[in-house]
Amino acid sequence: MRRELGMFSALVAMCFALWLSNSDFLGASNVINTTRQVSMLGIFAIGIAFVIITGGIDLSIGSMVGLTGVIIARLTSTSTGGLGYPLWIGIVTALVVACLFGLIQGLLITRLRLQPFIVTLGGMLLLRGVSQTVVEGGVISMGQSPLLSLASGGLLKLGRDPLIPYPFLIFLSVAALGGYVLHFTVLGRYIYAIGGSRDAAEYSGINVKKVETLTYVISAGSAGIAGICYAAYIGQMSQQVGVAYELYAIAAAVLGGCSLRGGEGTIFGIVIGSAIMRVIDNGINMFQYKYSDADGIRRIWRLDPNWNWIIVGAVILAAVILDQLVHIFQAARAVREAGARKAGIAASSSANAEAAKRAETHAG
Amino acid sequence: MSSASVAEEPLLSMRGITKRFPGVVALQDVQLSLHAGEVLALMGENGAGKSTLMKILGGVTRPDEGEITVAGKAVEFSNVRDAKAQGIALIHQELMLASNLDITSNIFLGNEQRSGSLLRPLDRRRMKAQAEALLARVGLELPVTTLVSRLTAGQQQMVEIAKALSANARILIMDEPTSSLGSGESEQLFKIIHQLRANGIGIIYISHRMGEVMELSDRITVLRDGRYVSDLLRADASHDKIVGLMVGRALSNQYFPQKRELAAPTTRLVVEELELPGAPGAVSFSARKGEILGFAGLIGAGRTELMQAIFGVTPAKAGRMLLSEVRYAPKTPREAIDRGVYLAPEDRKHHGLVLRMSVAENSSLPNVATYARFGWLDRKTERRVADAGVKRLRTKTPSIKQAVGNLSGGNQQKVVLAKWLAMQPQILILDEPTRGIDVGAKAEIYQHMSELAGEGITILMVSSDLEEIMGMSDRVVVMHERRITGVLEGSALTQLAVAGLMTGRAHDVDSMAVAS
Amino acid sequence: MNAKRKLGLLLAALPVLVALGCNNDSKSKPSAAQTASDPDKIVKLAFVTNNPSQFWKISEAGLKKYEKEAKVQVDMKMPPNGTPEDQNQILQNLASQGYDAIAVSVIAPNDQLGVLNEVAAKTNLITFDSDAAKSKRLLYIGTNNFDAGKALGERIATLLPQGGKIAVFVGTLSADNATQRLNGIEAAIKDKKIEIVDKREDNTDRAKARSNVEDIINAHKDLNLVVGLWNYNGPAIAAAIQGLGKQGKVLAAVFDEDDATLDAIANGTIAATVVQKPFQFGYLSAKWMHDLATKGDAAKKALPASGIIDTGVTVIDKTNVASFKAELAEMKKSTQ
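The joint structure predicted for all components is written out below.
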C-alpha cells in the first residue's frame, strides 16, 4: 500500500497546485469532464491489471477499444457506412467479440505456451487491421445515436451537468467488482499467487492455465466496455481510435503500484494511477501563470502542449525511481537495525540479510 | 516408531512403476511401500529416479505403467489436485511458496475451501484462525500475516509443512528438506517429523545427508539408475552399506581425499578489520597459498556476506585487504575477477550459471571478451577451452553444446568450476560446493578441490555440512552472528569445538546431526 | 538453429533481391511516347490521399466520374495511419510497380521532398489538396490552404464584429496544411481585435481532440470562438460544445465537410465550415494523370504556367448547408 498512498498524496498535491494556478480546475464542468476521462481510462486499466498481476502483458487492448467502437458504429449507425441495426445488437456483438478474442489470446498463451508479449502484439496489429477493414478505411459517424447520451448523460443533474456521468458509474462498478474479485475471492488470491510464483501456484493444485486465460478475457472484456464509452464520447469512429491506449493503461497500472514482474498491485492503486495520467493531461491544458511583463501588460503563461509526453514520461520515471529509493533505504535501515540489535537471534538477522539481498537484486 | 507399530496393510504402495522420457527410461519397474506412522528414507544418487518417482506420487507427472494404491484402494492421478485429494503432500527441495503473499494465504493456497466456484469469497477469519493453530503445531512463532518473503528458508519449510497439514495430508514427501537449513532449524524440523510420525502420518524422506537418514528413518529404500535396488531396516543399515547400494560398488571408506602437507606457508590473502553491512563488528583472518580454508557457521552467520565482500558484490564498508601483499579493494565482481578471485555461488541456478546456455557458453562467460576478435566471438577457442574443462573435471555431458539446465547438480557444479579454472585463479571461493549433489559426484568434487589446492590455489569454502568442513578444510574459520568466533587448526580442530563456536555455546552438540 | 541460419541468409540476400527488383523496374519502365503508341497497354494511375478520412469519398466520386468518361482505372490509396512514412512507402511502392502517373496529397512537403523527387523521376507526379511546391511535381490541383484559411478568417471576423478571443485545435500544428490554414486565418483577422489565446494539438487521438476543447473552454472563461483545422476537429468541437452546453456562447468555425460537422451546422452548434472541392480534386487529378500518361509531351505543354489549378473554396453555413448535403449525398452515391 505504500506506493498507492504515495501516489495518492502526489495526486492530491497535483490537484491542489492546479487549483492554485487556475481556480476553474475545480469548477464543476472541468471536474466532471476529467472524471469522465479518468473513468474511461480506468475501466480498461483495471482490466489489464489482472493480466499484469499474473506477470503477463496485454498489448492488444488499445486496438480492442477501437474495434469495439468501430463494430458498434458499423452495425448501428444510421449515417453513411452504418447498417442501422438496433443499438443493443451492436453492444452485445462488440462485447462478445472482445471476450472471444481475449479467450483466444489466453488459450494461445497458456495452451501453446506462447509469450504474452508476442501473442498480444500480434493481436494489437491484427485488431487494428480488422477495424480498418470494418470502417473501409474511412470514418463512420455515430450520427444522433442514443449511445451518445452515455458519454454526455449521467445521474443526478447539477445545473445542466450530470453529477455522476455514466462512464464514471461504469468505472465505479468495474472497480468495485474488480476490487472484490482481486482482493476478496479465491480467484484473486490465485491471480496474486501466479504472479508471485507460478510454480508454487501450479504445485498447490491451482489450475494456472484456466486462471491465466481468464485474466486475458477480463482484460479484453474491459477494453470492450471502455470502447463503448469511447464510441459514445468521440461520436465518430475510425481505425485511429485507441492507438497507444494500451500503453496508457500499462502506465496507469505501473503508477498505481503494479510490478511488471507480477504479484503486486491493487485496484485502489490502478484508480489512482489512471487519475494521475488523466489529471496530467487535463493539467497541461488548465495550468496557467499570470504575470505582468516589463511593459506592465498583464499576461498569462501556459504550458506548451508539446511538453505533454515529456511531463507524462517524467512523472512515470519519477514515481518508479522514488519508490525504488524508498525501498532501498528501508532495506538498508532494516539491516542497520538488525546489526544494532546484537541479541537478535540468528534467524531474524538472516531474514534481514535476505531483505538486503532482495533490495540489491531489485536495484540491479 | 519401528516395524512393530506398522500396520499389516500399507498406507501407500507403488508397484511396477515405469516412466519413459524421450530417449531415457527414468524409472523401470520401481516399487515402494509406506506404512502409516513410518518414516521411509528414499535414497539414490541424483538421476537415480527419486524425483521422478515423487513427481508421479505428487500427481505432477503420470507414469507410463504401474499401479498405485492408497490405503488399499487403486488410484490414478492426472494432476496435483488428484494427489492432494488422496492426502498426498509434496514438499519440494526448492520451496514452492508465493513470496508476495502472507503465511496464511500460502498455507491455504489451492485449498481455500472445499468446493465452489472461483468467485466465492475468501473466508479470511476462518483461515487465519486455522493458520495460527497450524503454526503452533509446527512450532513457528510468527504472526500469520507475515509475508513469506520475510521468512528464512527454515521458516518457509515450516510453512510448507503447515500447508501439507492443512490439507489433511496422510502421506508427506520431503525432498532434501535440510539442504537450506541451519542445524538449529534442522533440529526443529526433526522434532516435527517425530511428532507427525507419532500422529500416524507416513513420511517419505529424501536426503543426501547420511546422518539425518540414520537418525530419522525406520526403513530405507534405495534406487539406482531408475531401478529399485533394495529395502533396508534402519537396524540393518550402515553408512557404507547404503552408499554401496546407491553407487553400485563398494565405495572406499576414504570419502574425503588425503589431506596434503602444506609446504612453507605463504600468505595469499589478508583480511583486516573488514566491516560488513549491518554487522556489529569487523572480521579479520588470513588465507595461505594452496590452502583449503573452511568457513563454518549457521545460516545467517554472515559467511555469504563476507564472501560477497571479498568478491566485490557488496563492497565492505571499512577495513583493508591484501592479495599477494598488494592492496585489494574490489568494488565490483569484475575487479575481483581481474585479480584472480572467483566465486562459485551458493545458488548455482541463479548466480552461478545461465541454465539455458550451453556448457561451452557458460564456461566462457566470464572471459568471453578475451575469446573475441574485433567483437566476433571466437567459437573455436571457446570450444577448445570448454572441452578441456569437461575433460579435466570429467563432466558428464552429451556434448559441450548441451544446455546446462539439463545436467545433474554435480555436473552443473563442475561447469561452474571449469568456468573459473580456465582463468588460472588465485583464490577460489566455493559457497556450499556440494549442496544438492549426490554422493558419487561429491567425492569427485572433493577430489578436484584437493587437486586445485595442490596446485597452489587458495580455496575459501563455505559449508553448512559439518562433515564436509571437517573432511576438507586445512583450517576452519567459525562465524557466529557476523563475527569470527574462532579459527581452528591442527589438534584444536574438532567437531565439538567447531559446533560450539558456531552456536555461541560450547556444549550443545546434540543438534549437530552428523555421520558416525 | 537451422531456422535461424536460414532467416539470416534470407535477410542477407534481401538487399540483393531488392536491387534486382529495382533494375527490372527501370528497364521495364516504358517512356511516355511508347505508352502512347501501345493501345493494349493498361494505363496505371493512382490517387494517394493523406489519410483514410471520409472526406476522400467525395474525391472518389470525381475519380469515378472520370473513370466512366475515359474508360480508365484510377487506384485510390489511403495511408492507414496518416503518417509521412506510410505515404512514402505507398508512393515508392507504386513507382516501382511502374505506375504511369501518381497524384498525391502530400502530408509533410519538406520531409518528403526526397521521396517525391525520386518518384517524379520515374513517373508523372502531380499533387492535389496539399502541395509540395519545392518538388519536381508537374502540377498542383487544389486550393491553396492559405486562401481557405483566409476565407474562414473573414467569416470569423464577421461572426465577432466586436473582436474577441479564439482558440485553435488541430492534430499537428507543424503539418503544412495546418500552418497554411492558420496563416490564412491570422492574415484575415489581423487588425480586427481578435486574439488567438490558445492552440492545442491532439496527435490524431480522437478522444483527446474532444477533451482538449472541453479543457480549453473550461480554462478560458472568456473564450468567444473555437477553430478546428483538421476534418475530425469539427465533430470533436461540436461534441464538446454540446456536452458543455455552450451552444451559442462559444461559436465554432471549422474546415471540411464531415457528416457530424454538417449536422452541427444545421443545428447551430457550428457557425461555418470552409470546404474545398474534393470532387474536383478527384476529377481533375484523374484527367490530368490520364493526359500526362497517354499524351506525353502534348499534355506537358498544356500545363498551366504557374503549375497550379485553383479549385476554390465554398463557405458553408446554416443558409446553404441543406443543399450542400443533398449535393454531397448525390456524389457519394455514385461511389457505392
